[in-house]
Amino acid sequence: MKSHLQVAVIGGGVVGASVLYHLAKLGWPEVGLFERSELTAGSTWHAAGGMHTMNADPYVAKLQAYTIGLYKTLEQESGQSCGIHQTGGLLLASDPSRLDYIRAVHAKGKVLGLELELVDAAEAKRRLPIADVSDVLGALYDPLDGHVDPSGVTNAYAKAARSFGAEVYRHTPVEELTQNGDGSWNVVTPNGTVVAEHVVNCGGLWAREVGALVGHSVPILPMEHQYILTDEIPEVAGSPSEVIHCVDFKGESYLRQEGKGLLLGTYEAHGTPWSLNGTPKDFGHELLPSDLDRIIDRMEAAYRRYPCLAEAGIKKIVNGPFSFAGDGNPLLGPVPGYRNYWIAAGVMAGFSQGGGVGLSLAQWMIDGEPETSVLAMDVARYGDFANRRFTMLKVKENYGRRFSITFPNEELTAARPVKTTPVYPRLKQLGAVMGAQYGTEYALWFAPEGMAPVETTTFRRSNAFKPVAEECKAVRERAGIMEISVYGKHEIEGPDAAAFLDRIFANRLPAVGRIALTPMLSEKGRIVGDLTVARLAEDRFFVIGSGSAELYHQRWFHRHLPPAGVTSRAVTRQWVGFNLAGPQARQVLQKLTDEDLGGNAFPFLAMREMALGLVPARVGRISFTGELGYEIYCTPEYQNTLLELLLEAGKEVDARLIGSRALQSLRVEKGFGGWTREYTPANLPFEAGLGRFVKLDKGEFIGRAAAAAEKQAGPARKLVMLEIEARDADLWGDEPLLDGDRCVGFVTSGAYGHTVGKSLALGYLPAALAEPGRRFVTDSLGNALGATVLAEPPYDPSGARMRS
């Protein structure tokens, strides 16, 4: 065993082997994998080995397509068969909502370059003769679906990695991890201690135990998962080609061929967590006791869907544990609060995602960032609210909904509420329909008197449409009040704070008492932040960003902090507040203060501390609605008082409470982009329309050279605004933009513009095609809709109203 490694990868399942392979192949050969037993021990060996491309997040879907495409290369590099069975697969839809779902997936597939095909029931029957399709309304066919041999794939990764110089240490459990002053790790095993510059937790079922070695509580939980293998079935044995994969949404099951029989699996509605308090050290190639009673209803549905099962005997029942995060996506990336400590765990769909996870993490470690956005998998999406109880409740919910539709306007209910602000009960009393972001409850919209505060889940316009229209009208004509406590907030201070922020922000820093909007860029010029920075004093700054990115941004700040002279801390919970916006917002706020709020006295992009009645507050002259507006922050003990002051002062102008659905409509009317949609680590600043906030002449800053190169060459694509010829459904994001039969771009956000009376969207197009007036076609639930590029936002394009 070597005494020194660049990276110690802990865990020998398919994910650890993939990370090892990609690190070695991309140029870090001094890497070693430490496996407590044999490769595949844990979850990998008993996995069904299915592979599919589609995922709710398009960037994850691209990585899944990469994984599937990698297997043939892996066989060539390793000489090891991966047992590839690329049969293709069907998703069956037996009710209108599921038909809408597969239509939406089909549209997203065009963006990803996938050759998905919508077929009718007769064609589904032709491709899968053993299925009863009498209730099927339609199906989606994916030619890339199939399955692989779990052991073959894992060993292929390991063999290929060794050919690139990597080491594999079997029967070498890691017992202790201690960090040295230079950031390296002592990896202590029974066979000796290795010093590694980096450590990656790929522990799978033991990821929690590996995390505990350094004090990291990993928010994953193993769940029991059962599938059955049948005896030989004549219809299968006699088939001229291998039976294709099938997911039956109605029956909530998946099926594929195994030998001359079938493999049938399901995710029961009330899943069974396994080993809540930790995975036994001696667990490995064992299975758990079977319990078919838990899935008998799903099996009965499968027998109706596939009548040939009725005469088939069960050869084997497989019940084994798999680890899940609360939303079903992996935990990936540098663990916040730790130096040179990484994770790739909770990869439930290991044979669809393992290659992409390994590639992304290797790029992140070697190059400083992955080549595409992995926000949906980033470990920083979970904060300290994701404790053991939260994780159990969310994992059980996700497991039980594996084949259920999550509608784009749906808010899942498990483990809620977690974090609430002081005004939460009052907002509920006033009709708020709540959502949750980063564990915090916030208002989506407000049900008027006489209407139940419950939203119908749908792909189309819901019962919230009219109430949201009224909220938008209040903001555009009078004043609206929206709680913004969920925004992520950071305080950065110290004698070197200005120099530090000047280096990580692309815009110039504001003067004291002023606000600036600024991108934060990676070394390659990609957008890692879209932030508001207010300068409270020469050496003290208040930085505001997306609430879901609080830990993500804090990790970035800490990564670049100098050894001394600057402190950075997240203060989201310490500062709560409201946005007050609308043409009469100044009139409302002026009633609460003696401060002069006139346009010259308190101009656009100013911030100051002032008393609002009895409430000490920070007030910023800024708004995301496109109207005259103020962001008002106070400490939590004052929030209820502040809300009542605003409501009382707003009575004269009939101000009303609004939620985030109204804000979505208002910001899209203005063409304002948002984090995770228009602005992600997959985007560059000039293509995203943020070039005016990038000051290349201010001096050196992170990403400057890349941004300068993008500006000089001209962006290859551009963020544009589109008018959509919608019917009863507006766009949500990830729909294609088609020029003839070619997919040339994609939608990032959509909403109905209640002020302008038009369905609108934002999206990216090739720069050469991003011409005002040019017409494209998009796909909404199987309907071809016109999408016309607008020259400017349809509402107040000059921005005069928010500067008034």
Automatic annotation (TrEMBL):
Gene3D superfamilies: Aminomethyltransferase beta-barrel domains, D-Amino Acid Oxidase, subunit A, domain 2, FAD/NAD(P)-binding domain, Probable tRNA modification gtpase trme, domain 1. Belongs to the GcvT family. One of its GO terms (molecular function) is oxidoreductase activity. Residues 717-796 form the Aminomethyltransferase C-terminal domain. It holds the Pfam family GCV_T. The lineage of its organism: Bacteria, Pseudomonadati, Pseudomonadota, Alphaproteobacteria, Rhodospirillales. Keywords: Oxidoreductase. Residues 7-364 form the FAD dependent oxidoreductase domain. Transmembrane segments: none annotated. This is Dimethylglycine dehydrogenase. Residues 367-420 form the FAD dependent oxidoreductase central domain. Residues 424-698 form the GCVT N-terminal domain.
